[in-house]
Amino acid sequence: MVYTAHQKMATLSSCFAQLTHKAQTVFQNSAKVEAELVYLRAELIDAKAQRSVLDQELHTLLLQLHACQLQHLPGVHTEPDAERIRRRLEEELQQSPTHQHRLKEDGMQMSLLELASLHSELSQLRSENTALRNTLLALQSEVYGAKLTAKYLDKELAGRIQQLQLLGREMRGEIRDKLWRQLESEILLHRHKAVIRACRSKGNGTGGDNTIRASEPPLNDNRSQQGIDEPRFVTVQRETGEGLGISITGGREHGVPILISELEPEGAAAKCGALYVGDAILSANGKDLKQASHQEAVDILQSQLGDMCLEVQYIAAEDSDEENSLGEDMYGFS
Prior knowledge:
The protein is α+β, with helices and mostly antiparallel strands.
């Protein structure tokens, strides 16, 4: 048995040594590729600079050629148009970068190639900066989603632990059922708020022109301490064949009500000005959606024609114990 264990340990050691060797090989190849990338980047900048210089010299030579051709034309000095063209060519020659003196701060003259190289490098750095900024924004969005998921799971875990503790206590059945339902409703409320935060962060993000920024209804005196407004009725007026202009999420299978996740900028729902991202749709033209699945809600909303009366309820996603904004942009990117 000891011999078998020694053999297995030797096999594991061999596998680990091979893995280490392959990892070192990958790191070396990565370093070579990075060095080659830096070299190619420098070559690209030089090539762009040389091309820019050659284009400017070609333009200058063409101007000089046209000026010489104009001077050798018969009767050129008596033609007012020819004189005007000659002056224009001279002005363009004077404004050409080849004929201009560009000085450094120390007073030394900077060559045209050096200047073009600096412009090319600046353009390259700007493009790289834009790409890195987009990558950073994408990573920040992923981090926000991970934070939101962790915060929701932490609250749901706390609620489930309280339910387990409730099962171990001796109390009357009706009191236990009441407390159980209360804990279950709090868990569902936190789930609801987590989905709303995700929808509103999408509306306030950098998704382009396809969505409008998520707004919030004015503060209502009847709003409860948990941020729940009273249900309200909103009439969306539509033209013939026009859609609602909303996207929905949630449903019975997800444990959350039907929520407005997106408002199209030119849609009928956005034009009415009374619907907000995060609104829970309770009914549509009198048809109850409180226990509807996502597909059932989609079918009901698509089957309604003309103006639509929606019963909606807003639940604020921000809790009073919110420490920091999960979606705070620490870099100020837009």
